[in-house]
Design goal:
Its EC number is 3.5.4.2. Belongs to the metallo-dependent hydrolases superfamily. Adenosine and AMP deaminases family. Its cofactor is Zn(2+). The protein is 50% helix and 13% strand. The chain is an alpha/beta fold and 364 residues long. The chain has a single domain (19-353), classed as TIM Barrel, CATH 3.20.20.140. An eight-stranded parallel β-sheet has the order 1-2-3-4-5-6-7-8. The longest helix has 20 residues, at 342-361. It binds hypoxanthine and zinc ion.
């Protein structure tokens, strides 16, 4: 991990990551709040789905998707290919959801909230919303039974599409209510697609009792998008949000309000744009806790970025220089940011802190 992510040696932080540390990062109880279902499709499942649907994608091309770092095509285009060629019925969605949750559970993710873009499924894959959602919800229930975890689905707005499609998405959600479908998000390319375009979908979702989150301040897009997501869309939490570091006054405001930011140490924008030897030092994630912001580390697209939840936590320690007590705080931030009831939240706070402290006491 230390060699592969931006060549920043762990010794820069003065701390080396031992096997005991790796075991610790894996063992700590986790929530995952920022993961895209299509970015979590296993390599072998991608191949199997491509064969099943006779997709016009060469095996070498698929293998190239599943590499860390520079890719021949961007991740977002791989996700579009999944919609276009690979997903053909609700059982495909059920399969990839179950496998994602199985992989997350193997890293002690006890609760996952994950994104899925219904407009691609409905418009491109030609699977009806109700069928698709039912397939994903069935997998959540199976995973809950088999792995003892909980999970919530976040249907997410494709911000490259027409904002009216986002309004329609909320209508679909209202007519297919399920306890596992918690709220909405917005993702895909943020450039030229600021949050205000989607005010109506967010208003309708809130009025219908759904929770809300939004990708904002990603791809170097300005802090104003974070402000708009919070003040206009009234989101409950923020995905990425890195450019808030450019506006310390706004950061102070959101620090005081306790807003949770789901951050992604492997976010490809910074891997691409920062000099490799300074990547981890200059990364805005490093500065966010110093501004008082509540952050929580996540994988985003684990299969395509070749990162798992344990490694996302490890990077916070090995590359961004946070200590074990900082990670303890990040764990609490995740619990605070999760869309679970207060009884569950309070129980997790007590139980997970006990587990975390017992595991930390065994570190060298
Ligand atoms: N940002 C926006 N859209 C996405 C991402 C992301 O990190 N991953 C998958 N879809
Ligand atoms: Zn994301």
């Amino acid at each position: 991990m230390n060699e592969t992510f931006g060549n920043v040696p762990a010794s820069r932080t003065g701390i080396s990551t031992t096997p005991a540390h790796r075991a610790f990062f894996k063992a700590i109880p986790k929530v995952e709040l920022h993961c895209h279902l299509l970015g979590a499709v296993r390599h072998e499942t991608f191949i199997a789905l491509a064969e099943k649907s006779h997709a016009p994608i060469e095996r070498a091309e698929i293998d190239a998707f599943y590499t860390r770092g520079e890719k021949p095509v961007g991740v977002l285009r791989v996700l579009r290919a999944l919609d276009e060629y690979l997903l053909t019925d609700a059982d495909d969605l059920r399969r990839i959801t179950y496998e994602y949750l199985e992989d997350a559970a193997a890293h002690n993710v006890r609760h996952a909230e994950f994104f899925w873009n219904p407009t691609g499924t409905v418009r491109v894959s030609k699977i009806e919303y109700g069928d698709a959602q039912a397939g994903i919800v069935a997998a959540i229930r199976d995973a809950s039974r088999d792995f003892g975890m909980s999970a919530l689905l976040i249907p997410s707005i494709d911000r490259e599409a027409d904002p009216d499609e986002a309004v329609t998405l909320v209508e679909w959600m209202k007519s297919h209510r399920a306890d596992e479908v918690a709220g909405i998000g917005v993702d895909y390319r943020e450039n030229d697609r600021p949050p205000e375009l989607f005010w109506k979908a967010y208003r309708n979702a809130r009025e219908a009792g759904f929770r809300t989150t939004a990708h904002a301040g990603e791809f170097g897009m300005p802090w104003r998008n974070v402000e708009t997501a919070v003040e206009l869309l009234k989101v409950d939490r923020v995905d990425h949000g890195y450019t808030i570091v450019d506006n310390p006054a706004l950061a102070a405001k959101y620090a005081a309000s306790g807003l949770v930011f789901t951050v992604v140490p492997t976010n490809s924008y910074y891997l691409r744009t920062l000099p490799p030897e300074k990547w981890a030092e200059l990364h805005p994630i490093r500065r966010m806790p110093g501004l008082g912001l509540k952050i929580h580390p996540n994988t985003d697209d684990p299969a395509l970025h070749k990162v798992n939840p344990s490694e996302a936590w490890e990077l916070m320690f090995s590359h961004f220089g946070f200590g074990i007590s900082d990670l303890r705080g990040f764990m609490l931030n995740g619990i605070d940011g999760a869309w679970v009831g207060n009884v569950t939240r309070d129980a997790w706070r007590v139980q997970w802190l006990n587990e975390f402290d017992a595991l930390a006491a065994q570190l060298p």
